[in-house]
Design brief:
The protein is of the alpha+beta class. It folds into three domains: 3-103, OB fold (Dihydrolipoamide Acetyltransferase, E2P) (Beta Barrel); 135-209, no CATH class; 245-444, Chloramphenicol acetyltransferase-like domain (Chloramphenicol Acetyltransferase, 2-Layer Sandwich), CATH 3.30.559. It contains nine helices and 19 strands. The strands form five sheets. Strands 9, 12, 15, 16, 17, 18 and 19 form a seven-stranded mixed sheet that branches. The longest helix is centred in the middle third of the chain and has 18 residues, at 254-271.
């Protein structure tokens, strides 16, 4: 008879904690090896966590909605079926992650997308170290280290606003400053004075300028889901960080539509994949990014990082929220390769099987609200990038064209509005419009692979 600890996995290099959003098994339930037993949410990804062993779920130590440090024991599995099952225990104080669990440098700081080190290491025997076991010594103790080991995003925001993280006491594990903490502090309008230790519990921007709305009789009130709260935080930070400007182009997709129609039957029989407009668009976008590298760049303080990789984030709308999986090195992929990657990432997003690295490292993003009928929009630029392309509904429209003899003729064409939101801190309007013009030309003259 043996019990195996189930731990909170580390879902990415910079992740120090995770929220246990839902238990998929109850105390007393039989658990198979590699069977999902709980769901977690981090600021990178939602995922189902499988068990590393077979047995019976004997104890649940962390309840739904609780946020704990990585390597915290969240449950125990009795490895012999039929063994005595303990009653659910109250959640213990979260064990702190060891220093080794929080790397000193992220790959993203060197211009490469971060790599998750424990994306699929879901459950197993663990011996977490408690914070009390690690002595503090003159600012080099555990709490000081973990506080300054905040995520790359938090460090970036702090650097841009001249905030010293070591002087802050956040709401995360061991006082770790979280993204929500620093956003709330900035939204309060406060400034960091030398030698002061600012509170991280300042009210949010909405609370500063107006009282919070109160529910009326008959209203339904429910807390935000973890993914909704994280999306909210990310969007507010992104909107506050970048200088947003949006340009619009109408693009004629008639030629692409005809090429797609000619290729469709053979393509789908050979690959087993449905051929949509999106691979054509991604291919053209990558070609245009090569001509205008500032659209594939990122702001780092007073410097600009020009990315050499072309990693295209594709926004996917799910029943429970929005997630942006990333096609890595899209410049190396053919239409069939792009299609396979698109379908694979979308399927794994819907079934909660994405790994942290699947949603990291985007250098440019495409969102497609047109599938819901939207004609155009002004999407928010994801943090760490300089632009996002929005695709409107693809529909047939009457257009005035030039006939063979130079006369004006009206023809039915397949068109869509494309919108480009760009960061005006580094992208000039002329470059943004030239980039869109390049996409327009590329799609309207797309080479026919079948000829």
């Amino acid at each position: 008879m043996a019990r195996v600890d189930v731990i909170m996995p580390q879902m990415g290099e910079s992740i120090a904690e995770g929220t246990l959003s839902k238990w998929l098994k109850r105390v007393g339930d039989e658990v198979k090896r590699d069977e999902a037993i709980f769901e977690i949410s981090t600021d990178k990804v939602d995922a189902e966590i499988p068990s590393s062993v077979a047995g019976v779920l004997a104890e649940i130590l962390v309840g739904e909605g609780q946020t704990v440090a990585v390597q915290t024991v969240v449950a125990r599995i009795e490895t012999e079926k039929g063994a005595a099952v303990a009653a659910p225990a109250a959640a213990p104080p979260p064990a702190a992650a060891s220093e080794e669990r929080v790397p000193a440098a992220s790959a993203s700081a060197r211009g490469a997308p971060p790599t998750a080190q424990a994306a699929t290491a879901a459950a197993g025997v663990s011996h977490p170290s408690a914070a009390a076991d690690i002595p503090s010594a003159g600012g080099n103790g555990f709490e000081d280290r973990i506080r300054t080991k905040s995520s790359p995003l938090v460090r970036k925001i702090a650097a841009e606003h001249g905030i010293e993280l070591a002087r802050m006491h956040g709401t995360g594990i061991a006082g770790r400053v979280t993204k929500k903490d620093i956003e709330s502090y900035l939204a309060s309008g406060a400034t960091v004075a030398a030698g002061t230790s600012p509170s991280m519990h300042a009210p949010t921007g909405a609370e500063q300028h107006a009282p919070a709305p109160e529910p009326w009789p008959g209203d339904r009130v429910e807390p935000m889901s973890k993914i909704r709260a994280l999306t909210s935080d990310h969007m507010v930070a992104a909107r506050r960080t970048a200088a947003h400007v949006t340009s619009f182009f109408e693009i004629d997709l008639t030629r692409v539509g005809r090429i797609r129609q000619r290729m469709r039957a053979q393509f789908e029989s050979e690959t087993g994949q449905k051929l949509t407009y999106l691979p054509f668009i991604i291919s053209t976008v990558v070609d245009s990014l090569k001509q205008f590298p500032v659209l594939n760049a990122a702001v780092a303080g007073s410097s600009i990082i020009y990315r050499k990789q072309y990693n295209i984030g594709i926004a996917v709308a799910l029943d429970w929220g929005l997630i942006v999986p990333v096609i890595k090195n899209a410049s190396d992929l053919s239409l069939s390769g792009l299609t396979r990657n698109l379908n694979d990432l979308a399927d794994r997003a819907r079934t909660k099987r994405l790994k942290p690295e699947d949603v990291q490292g985007a250098t440019f993003t495409i969102t497609n609200p047109g599938v819901f009928g939207s004609l155009m929009g002004t999407p928010i630029i994801p943090l760490g990038t300089s632009a996002i392309l929005g695709l409107g509904a693809i529909e047939k429209r009457p257009k005035v064209l030039t006939g063979v003899d130079g006369e004006d003729v009206i023809a039915v064409r397949t068109c869509a509005y494309f919108s480009l939101s760009f960061d005006h801190r580094i992208v000039d309007g002329a470059d943004a419009d030239k980039f869109l013009a390049s996409i327009k030309k590329g799609l309207e003259t797309f080479p026919d692979p079948s000829r």
